[in-house]
Amino acid sequence: MSYPIHRFQAICRLTPAEERHLTTLGDAEIVRRRGETFQREGDAPGGFHLHVRGWISSSILLRSGNRLIQKIHLPGDILGTPSMVLPQAADTLTAITEAVTAFVPYERFGQLFTQAPRLAALFTIAVQMERLALMDVLAVTGNASAREQLARLLVDLHARLSPIGMVQDDSFHLPLTQEVLGDLLGLTAVHVNRTIRGMEADGIISREGHRVRLLNLPALREISPLPPRRLQFEPAWLPAPL
User: Fold this and answer.
1) What DSSP line would sit under 167-190, residue for residue?
2) What integer pLDDT is reported at residue 189 of this predicted model?
3) Which of 210, 189, 178, 177 is nearest to 35 (CA)?
4) Left, alpha or beta for 60 (phi > 0: left; psi -120 to 50: alpha)?
5) CA of 202: how far to CAs of 3, 149, 157, 169, 199, in Å?
6) In whole angstroms, what is the distance from residue 169 CA to residue 51 CA?
7) pLDDT at 101 exceeding the cut of 80
8) Is residue 154 within 8 Å of 205, Cβ to Cβ?
């Protein structure tokens, strides 16, 4: 399996055995077609998914009938973990581009706690990283300008895409429509378009098709209402590798 393990390597130095555990944890890789929904809210989950390649959205259905996209997942993410505490899947997972995932049954994941306890602890940290990301989104939603919110999102995507080699000269492919961006930012598509054009006019970003270049990354970081998070490397409480 070719699951990217950079987010675990950012927390501590992995042993060869831990790397083998990670790369063999999932079932055979499955290619997801663009637009394919491979988990629906309300399904019986039975496990979670390792995100190997492509862009994937997580969404929930509101009582109004509207679907709200909450998160854009990138390679190395762990999909569907909120459903661990529910009898039914908490969200819907849909491939934005062609994507690849690998399914991990809960039973196999549970074995990590006895076979590789430090790796199980790293999964716990990875889930807390997702919680931090959600806290940041909640902090700015409704409390920051459209320009600030877009800057935060672009800086976040740059930081998440860089470790997997998907950023070149501060530019990256952004396969998201303005409607999807609006969902993520709590804005209308018209407002998103106006904000992007304003940043282009100011020489902060440029666009060519679906490729976005961050012309002034320091300025974007200054505009973002939140400072960057700095992960703690090898926390002292981590159990020793077996």
Assistant:
1) -BTTEEE----HHHHHHHHT--HH
2) 92
3) 177
4) beta
5) 38, 16, 20, 19, 5
6) 25
7) yes
8) yes
Residue 66 contacts residue 88 (beta carbons within 8 Å): no
> For the whole prediction, is pTM greater than 0.85?
yes
Torsion-angle region of 45 (φ positive above 0: left; ψ -120 to 50: alpha; else: beta): alpha
What is the model's pLDDT at position 40?
96
Q: Residue 192: in which H helix or E strand, if any? A: helix 189-201
Q: Can you list the domains of the chain with their CATH numbers? A: 6-129 (2.60.120.10), 144-223 (1.10.10.10)
From CA 100, how far away is CA 135, in angstroms rounded?
27
For 161, the token pair is 């895409």
Place of tokens 């988990």: 39
Which of these, 15, 30, 68, lies nearest to 183 by C-alpha position? 68
